[in-house]
Amino acid sequence: MTDLRTPLRIAGLSAWLLVLTTTPTLADEPVPALAPRPAVAVRGIYGGVPSRILDGGETLDDYGINAVWIGSDGATAEVVAGLKAKAPGVRVFAEFNTMHQAGYLADHPDAAPVGPDGLRAPAPDDWQGVCPTHPGYRRERMAAFRKTLAGAPIDGIWLDYHHAHASWEQAEPYLPDTCFCRNCLDAFARETGASVDGPTPEVSRRLLGEDRAKWVAWRCGVFTDWVREFRAIVDEVRPEALLGTFHCPWTDEERDGALRDKLAIDLKAQAAYLDVFSIMPYHARFGHANDSAWISRQTAWLGRFLDVRGEPGERLKIWPIVQVADWGEAVRAEDVSAVVDHGTRPPSTGVMILHWSGVGSDPAKVRAIGEAYRAIRP
Are 340 and 309 in contact (CB under 8 A)? Predict the structure, then answer.
């Protein structure tokens, strides 16, 4: 079986700077002895089929792994069935790119996001988003989503890059204001009754000024409506599958409310359609390399915000994706236990490792993942 790898967010890495915190180093913190955590039902890996384990005569269960996330392009019937045959009981989930299918713009340049000046917004750090109201793009993504669900016996599908045109996956994010294309402006006017008369720079000043609250609420509604349609497709095509989302780990107040104001993510509104929130607290990447407890702090905030406690019977679940691979900042094998510890504290009921492509060839980290996962396995 080939090692399938999902696209990883590493473009322009050399130009990104991480801000170091002044918290104590991991070496100064006592690393708890991990013990079984019955509430944590999912111990996963993200970013490719773990062929090095399976082809080496070992099983995923040997490492405590019971779930795998692979890219939707690689989630074929053959791959998923083959993985489940080699690892009975494993759950296989697909990752689905919603707003970052940059290749679409080659033939549809009118789908590019537009900035406040009325011009095509530059791609920050090579992160190229797409206009969320472009009808052709939405149809294409929904068709691809349906095809993924129908084509393979996956246990669920996770939305990825489901946010406005921005580059936030770094310690110092780039968060432009978009999209002020005619499609967006006309839809905003039609649905809210607001005026969008005048040159785009003039209109955008109003929307980012006196009409900002109305503009932000409308933009969040656009992205939430995508989630509503994804839910409807899941319910129709594979109703037993989970619908999850990978999303920014900020609180609603961080960076002046950028989660809603800039990224157009309304967590509470989207919660009506989702089963699992996979917060992305990449501690090393985001300037917290020496503070693994940041992972559990952000997860705890999300639980309070969404009223999720990690208790049996809850409809909504929180399964963080935590950083073990090096990305900007290194994560040592000896840090894995602490990372898994904080990634599985309540309200978390599942966890996955970022990412197999970055750790699969590192025996020390693979062993550390196995030790941590076996320790928390009920």
Answer: no
Could you give the angle at the alpha carbon of 127 between the alpha carbons of 124 and 129, nearest 5°? 105
Q: Where are the beta strands (DSSP E) in 216-343?
A: 242-247, 276-279, 317-318, 321-323
Here the tokens at position 200 are 């785009």
DSSP 7: -
3-state secondary structure 161-191: CCCCCCECCCCCCECCCCCCCHHHHHHHHHH
Task: Give the separation between CA 101 and CA 151, rounded to whole angstroms.
Answer: 20
Nearest-angstrom CA–CA distance, 48 and 3? 6
* Cβ–Cβ < 8 Å for 5, 47: yes
Structural tokens at position 300 = 């705890």
Identify any residues that bridge with 354 across adjacent strands, giving them in sequence order: 46, 323
- DSSP assignment string, 9-49: S-TTGGG---PPP-SPPGGGSPPP-----TT--EEEEESS-
What's the order of all strands across the beta sheet hosting 350-354?
317-318, 276-279, 242-247, 156-160, 91-97, 67-71, 42-46, 350-354, 321-323
pLDDT at 31: 61
Q: Rg for the chain (alpha carbons), in Å? A: 21
| Full set of structural domains in the chain with CATH | 13-376 (3.20.20.80)
Exposed (0-12), middle (13-18) or buried (19+): which is 256, by Cβ within 10 Å? exposed
Q: What is the pLDDT of residues 82-136, one digit of tens each?
A: 999 999 999 999 999 999 999 999 999 999 999 999 999 999 888 999 999 999 9
Residues 95 and 156: beta-carbon distance below 8 Å = no
pLDDT at 56: 87
Count of CB atoms within 10 A of residue 234's CB? 21
Show the low-confidence residues of the chain (pLDDT under 70).
1-32
Buried b (16+ CB within 10 A) or exposed e, 55-88: eeeeebeebbbbbbbbbbebbeeebbeebbebbe
Closest CA to 281 of 265, 270, 269, 293: 293
Strands 42-46 and 67-71, by their bridges, are: parallel
Residues 239-292 have pLDDT tens digits of: 999 999 999 999 999 999 999 999 999 999 999 999 999 999 999 999 999 999
